[in-house]
Design goal:
The chain is of the alpha/beta class. It contains 15 helices and twelve strands. Helix 10 (277-284) links the parallel strand 10 (265-268) and strand 11. It is globular.
Length: 394
């Protein structure tokens, strides 16, 4: 079985879709299939003229060049590693659609971009032999928004790299010192489109620290420079915490692991996600996690995180206060997180993805292992002081 793994778009990304393409490909290479990395050359991202030029290159790739290369290399299955791909690559097409936020959340794209995505995302997904989604929440969203029949949707959870693990305190402190961090901090990891909900997190952080008289703890934001939510700095200034909001930019794996391991908690209260890779990475490094009680995040976290309503600043603030004040609770959730993170591996994701390839070809597929289950959510933060410590045995 010969697979074309098209990473033309995700290979340029430093966020989840880029991690997905790189980690999954390496794990697929370790299996007994012939998988080939395809990456069509594009110009660097930039102003509108450059975007138009890149769009034209992509259209030429998806409309004609893909089919020629599929024939030339004898490809059995073409896998688009993100939600953009050809309508007909000349062989069975598998597409990974990470979420439906392009259509359900505020989008920075203009009319031309949206027309492009109507053809090479919506229509391509509807015509694909199989569509991979990373969670049951993403499956439901893609079925409803993209109009893909559920029989062609396959839930394949993301993995977590073995590089993310607890580390020795001396190494952690050395790496944090290189980043100029020598005091307690709450951590956010990722890019900053509006759905990441950072203004509410900043306000909640201000409320939590003000209520406890805490002028020492930082809010650390780590991630690529674009997209960046321009409301973060004004919100921090409004609430008098501008000096305690620290931006670090994109991190290499070593420094990111240290950031996770040293955080008082990861705060990832996104409004909508297809998976939420940072919460699993943080759990694997031993950090307690505060995340949203909806979308895929509750599904991925199970009972290993503190769940809050991301639309309610007060509830986010209460959750932060609990994890910053109650060391026993934070420690218990960190222990649960370590266990929960072991349920996710790129090796398993590659095995499940190979099963999808075989199903796209109409070949027998071995029985699938247990799928990721949505576990009962923890009580919301406003109710937690009454019953959470007993439930966790704290």
């Amino acid at each position: 079985m010969r697979i074309a793994f098209d990473a033309t778009i995700p290979a340029r990304s430093l966020t989840g879709v880029g991690v997905y393409s790189r980690e999954l490909f390496v794990s697929l290479e370790a299996r007994s299939i012939d998988v080939r990395w395809w990456q069509r050359p594009l110009g660097p991202p930039g102003p509108s003229a450059r975007r138009v030029a890149n769009g034209a290159r992509l259209m030429a790739w998806y409309l004609a060049a893909t089919r020629r290369q599929v024939r030339h290399e004898g490809i059995d299955v073409f896998h688009s590693a993100c939600a953009v791909g050809p309508v007909d690559p000349g062989c069975p097409h598998v597409m990974t659609v990470h979420d439906a936020t392009l259509w359900t959340m505020d989008s920075p794209y203009g009319a031309a971009d949206r027309l492009f995505h109507r053809v090479f995302s919506l229509l391509a997904a509807r015509r694909a032999a199989a569509v991979i989604v990373p969670s049951r929440a993403a499956r439901d969203a893609v079925a409803n928004v993209y109009g893909v029949d559920r029989s062609r949707l396959h839930v394949v959870p993301h993995g977590v790299s073995p590089a993310f693990r607890p580390i020795r305190a001396v190494e952690r402190e050395r790496l944090l010192a290189e980043l100029g961090i020598g005091q307690p901090y709450v951590l956010f990891v990722g890019a900053e489109p509006p759905r990441k909900n950072l203004p509410r997190l900043v306000e909640a952080f201000a409320r939590s620290t003000d209520a406890r008289g805490d002028r020492h703890t930082l809010l650390v934001l780590a991630g690529p420079p674009e997209p960046r939510d321009g409301r973060v700095e004004p919100t921090a200034a409004k609430h008098g915490i501008a000096s305690r909001v620290r931006r670090l930019g994109a991190m290499d794996v070593g420094h990111l692991r240290a950031l996770y391991a040293g955080a008082r908690c990861l705060a990832y209260v996104s409004l909508c996600e297809g998976f939420g890779l940072p919460i699993v990475e943080a759990m694997a490094c031993g950090a307690p996690v505060l995340t949203s009680n909806g979308s895929s995040l509750a599904e991925v976290a199970g009972e290993a995180a503190l769940l809050v309503d991301p639309s309610r600043v007060g509830e986010i603030a209460d959750g932060l206060s609990m994890l910053l004040e109650d060391r026993a609770l934070a420690g218990k959730l960190a222990e649960r997180g370590l266990v929960r993170s072991r349920a996710f591996s790129w090796r398993q994701a590659a095995e499940d993805t190979e099963h999808v390839y075989r199903s796209a070809l109409g070949r027998p597929v071995p029985p699938a292992g247990p799928s990721l289950q949505l576990e009962p959510a923890l009580p919301r933060a406003e109710n937690i002081p009454r019953n959470l410590p007993e439930r966790l045995g704290v």
